[in-house]
């Protein structure tokens, strides 16, 4: 049975008006009472209607952030960019992951119900987009840091996945590589489609469809993919992997097979995570501007909270090619 505002008021030993004032972050409720009401809201899982909350935002000086987890290689840079902007503007950050699945999401929903933050930054965890969309439609300001190319129905910051992949293909061709292979990300991801499209458009007849393998964005997946390509017996002299972890796995597999990089095969990754400059040889890669994306998303959300109309199209922060020893300039 749905918890009502009357039940919250009864458990917190206050009036329904006081609960409403806490939900709307009114400053005329003493701190101890407000804390008690929020604890009851969190404990009961009470979800207020838009009318009960009054859609009053921008008063907690806190921004929520929901991410899949903190182990993704570029997540630290995104968080640093977000934190730099929020701290400079006097905002706190309430960070949520979904490491514990439904339990984590339930905790996040309780904070939403308790009106614990003014707006939400999102690196979309699996299977949450419809829920976040409903929150946005109910009045919660949301900005997505859109690494996967979903382009949802609310403001987002993206990067130039297609242009970055096209730059990788153009560089491989410019250094004389004529048989190009590709290790893609999972087909369901928008960034995989964008990177594939960009690479194919610039590779032209240097790419053979027999030299494409789907990976899983892990180092082990990259090594398995290059082993599969080698087993097919189709010659290649250049490889583009859709992220750096898979590119490191490609280097592992080529080394194990006795193929020299870059003499026999040039390799390019995508992301420019910290390990890229420390591989043997150092990895040429497409730099995804993760920190700048975090900064741009936080800036966009704070502008929205200040009353500015958010953009209707994704804000694209461009990639750049970082040339190192795995595919050096000729």
TrEMBL record:
<keyword id="KW-0238">DNA-binding</keyword>
<keyword id="KW-0804">Transcription</keyword>
<dbReference type="InterPro" id="IPR046335">
    <property type="entry name" value="LacI/GalR-like_sensor"/>
</dbReference>
<dbReference type="Pfam" id="PF13377">
    <property type="entry name" value="Peripla_BP_3"/>
</dbReference>
<keyword id="KW-0805">Transcription regulation</keyword>
<protein>
    <submittedName>
        <fullName>LacI family DNA-binding transcriptional regulator</fullName>
    </submittedName>
</protein>
<dbReference type="InterPro" id="IPR010982">
    <property type="entry name" value="Lambda_DNA-bd_dom_sf"/>
</dbReference>
<dbReference type="InterPro" id="IPR000843">
    <property type="entry name" value="HTH_LacI"/>
</dbReference>
<dbReference type="GO" id="GO:0003677">
    <property type="term" value="F:DNA binding"/>
</dbReference>
<dbReference type="InterPro" id="IPR028082">
    <property type="entry name" value="Peripla_BP_I"/>
</dbReference>
<dbReference type="Pfam" id="PF00356">
    <property type="entry name" value="LacI"/>
</dbReference>
<feature type="domain" description="HTH lacI-type">
    <location>
        <begin position="3"/>
        <end position="57"/>
    </location>
</feature>
């Amino acid at each position: 049975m749905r918890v009502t505002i009357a039940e919250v008021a009864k458990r917190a030993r206050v009036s329904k008006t006081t609960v409403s004032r806490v939900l709307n972050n009114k400053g005329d409720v003493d701190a101890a009472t407000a804390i008690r009401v929020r604890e009851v809201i969190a404990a009961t899982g009470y979800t207020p209607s838009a009318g009960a909350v009054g859609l009053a935002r921008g008063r907690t000086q806190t921004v929520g952030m929901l991410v899949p987890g903190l182990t993704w290689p570029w997540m630290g840079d995104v968080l640093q960019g977000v934190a730099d902007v929020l701290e400079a503007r006097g905002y706190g950050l309430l960070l949520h992951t979904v490491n514990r699945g439904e339990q984590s999401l339930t905790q996040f929903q309780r904070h939403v119900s308790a009106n614990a933050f003014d707006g939400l930054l999102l690196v979309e965890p699996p299977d949450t987009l419809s829920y976040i969309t409903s929150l946005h439609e109910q009045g919660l300001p949301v900005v997505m840091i859109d690494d996967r190319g979903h382009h949802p129905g609310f403001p987002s910051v993206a990067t130039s996945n297609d242009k970055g992949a096209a730059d990788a293909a153009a560089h491989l061709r410019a250094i004389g590589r004529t048989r190009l292979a590709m290790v893609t990300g999972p087909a369901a991801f928008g960034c995989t489609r964008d990177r594939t499209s960009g690479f194919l458009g610039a590779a032209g007849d240097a790419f053979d469809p027999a030299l494409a393998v789907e990976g899983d964005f892990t180092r082990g997946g990259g090594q398995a993919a290059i082993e599969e390509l080698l087993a097919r017996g189709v010659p290649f002299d250049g490889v583009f992997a859709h992220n750096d972890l898979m590119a490191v796995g490609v280097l592992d597999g080529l080394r194990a097979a006795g193929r020299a990089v870059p003499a026999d095969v040039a390799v390019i990754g995508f992301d420019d995570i910290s390990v890229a400059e420390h591989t043997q040889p150092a990895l040429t890669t497409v730099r995804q501007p993760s920190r700048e994306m975090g900064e741009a998303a936080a800036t966009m959300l704070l502008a929205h909270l200040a009353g500015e109309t958010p953009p209707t199209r994704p804000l694209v922060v461009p990639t750049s090619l970082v040339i190192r020893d795995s595919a050096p300039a000729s």
